[in-house]
Design goal:
The protein has one domain (20-93). It contains five helices and no strands. The chain has helices spanning 8-11, 24-37, 43-52, 60-69, 78-93. The chain is elongated and about 60 Å long.
Length: 102
Amino acid sequence: MHYSFLAKSTYEYHPRSRRKKYSDLALLSLIKVVKRHNPSFGYLPMTDTLKIKYGLQVNHKRIYRLMKEHKLLTANTTCVQASMIHQRSARQEGEEPLPPEV
């Protein structure tokens, strides 16, 4: 029998197993454990650690929300990094570097 009216994706459909969802409290306790050993971790390294070391399938936005609500995020170092990059390039070009910010 030939089923030409069905799409191939429907005909060969294989349902995937459901992922286990973790509660916010369970994730928060794991985040605190990892943060205790790695205090400089932000939400992206934290997400990677939870995925790789613990084998969890978690969303980085959820980890960011939990860390933000419980004040576990690290300070933003973008300005310091930009200043260091500018000083490095200025040294290579022979320019006067920027004074350090206070």
